[in-house]
Structures are given as structure tokens and as C-alpha cells.
Structure prediction request, 149 residues.
Amino acid sequence: MSSPRRQAARAPPKSSPEINRPDLQSENLESSLLRLVNDHQNTAIRLREHTEKSKKQAIKSASRVSDLLVEAVNGGVEECFVNEKRIEVEIRALKATIMRFSKQTDQWLASTHAINNAIKEIGDFENWMKTMELDCKSITAAISNIHQS
Prediction:
């Protein structure tokens, strides 16, 4: 192994700036590493903030889309509900009209039957009158024949 003297003989004597130089290098290296760590942390924080902001915007947009879809669907449902109520009102009105027409039709049928019966009776009376007239003519003819003979 080499003695300390030989090493001293081989290496040039160190001046005072060279003595501090390894310390400077280690300080520079340490400060560079600290700067890199800080830069990384700052970048990670900015990225996290950007991610959080984007997440909030995405949630807000999704919520808005959801609200619009619900409004669109509810609008159709509301329109159907209004139409259903309108149809129900019309059905009730038509039912009342049908009942009124049914009663009126029954009254007309009763009146028509009464008129038919009256006409039949008139027809029967006419037939009776014709029969009576023929009977009277035959009796008159028979009496006339008896009286002339």
C-alpha cells in the first residue's frame, strides 16, 4: 500500500479553493436535488389541482346533462299527462252526451210506438167502418129487395 507521503507526492498540493470545492459540489448537488424535489412537488400539486378542477367541471357538466335529460323526459311525460287529463274530460263529456241521446232515443221510440198503435187503431176503425158500410149496404139492399117484392 502506499504511504501518505507517496500520495502527497503524487497529488498536487491542494489550494484553499480546491479544498472547499467538494463541499461546493455537494451543496450544488444538494440544492439541485432540492430544486428537483420542489419542482416535482409543485408540478404534482398543479397537476392535482388541474385534475380536481377538471373533475369538478366534469361533474358539473354531467349534472347539467342529467338535468337536461330529465327535463326533456319530464316534458314529454308532462305533455302526456296533460293530454290524458284532456282526454278524460272529453270522455266524461261524451258519456254525458251519450246518456242524454240515449234517453232522447228512448222517448222517440216510445212516441213512435204510440203513433204506430194509433195508426193501427185508425186502420182498424177504417176497416170496421168499411165492414159496417158493407153490412149496411147489404142490409139496405135486402130490405129494398123485400120491400119491392
In short: The helical segments are 4-10, 16-148. The chain is about 95% helix and 0% strand. Confidence is low (pLDDT under 50) at residues 4-9, 15-19.
